[in-house]
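DM from R.C. (forwarded with permission)

"hey, sorry to bug you on a friday — could you get me a structure for this? deadline for the figure draft is monday and I only need the backbone to look sensible"
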Amino acid sequence: MKNKHFNIPVFIPEAACPFQCIYCNQRKISGRLHIPDDDEIIGIIEERLATIDPGNSEVELAYFGGNFTGFSLEEQKHYLELIQPYIRNGLITGIRLSTRPDYISDKILDLLKIYHVKTIELGAQSLDDDVLKASKRGHTAADTEKASQIILEKGFNLGLQMMIGLPDDTLEKSVYTAHRIIEMGATETRIYPTLVIRETLLEKHYQEGKYQPLSLDEAVNWSVQLLKIFEGGHLKILKLGLHPSEGLLSGKDLVAGPWHPSFRELVLTEIWREKLEPLMHESGDSILIEVPPDQINCAVGYEGKNKKMLMRSFKVVKFRINSDLEGREYKVI
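My reply, with the result:
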């Protein structure tokens, strides 16, 4: 069994998208200023495949960033056919793509099935119609529900992306969206805190005092609650926070909002803080905490946050790996 999964992402910024959502400037977010041509796409694939062990890997080509199914059928065929030689020789196992809920139809899905598309991610963003309207999404929650249903009926894997802190959003509305994502049959999700990006309508509203983004602490705390809901529903959380493009790293394109280069680690640190905080009621010279191998960094905490917390009650705090533990189990020795 191939036990490593890789995506080869190809970003198509704002391609075929008829709407300009209030927050959206895909070119700034992705760092891509243009739609890549055929040679660039092939180059991206070849460069990435050269770093992957084909004998131990499952590889998907991922068309991200735009509204893929908003292309004409002929354009969709063109982009999909580019990948078929890699699928035929087994180097790529399938295709995933992101698109809008209101650009899904039986005809489109039948085409995607022919060309080995396996997973369709819909930018649901919210399942509250007031939030969608205030964000100028151009579709309703019912559109997402209908699209999700026919995607699943056609045998695709379904991913539903959501955003938090959109105009008119509340924690309660985001929690509702998370529960609906599970109920609608998604197996994957992404959580994106809303950022104020330069050259968007949201920037104008922010400058005019009509919009206030979440603080970093608020975004982390909201995400903690959502992550617990998704984990309880057995959904895979593919992403927490935006990919750090050069413009975001430098601050050049970011006007305001809860962006952090290690946002996911902050969220997982907070989950471990909640688990470990009861130990503060004890005290002593030392404490040793055993955790699963993949949890050691988050248990210690971003910049040692959780270890520092425990050092207020213990003189010596140590963490070590215990391969017999799973999930977020821990043992105090």
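R.C.: lifesaver. Residues 216-232 form the longest helix (17 residues).
me: no worries. Residues 9 and 62 are 5 Å apart (CA to CA).
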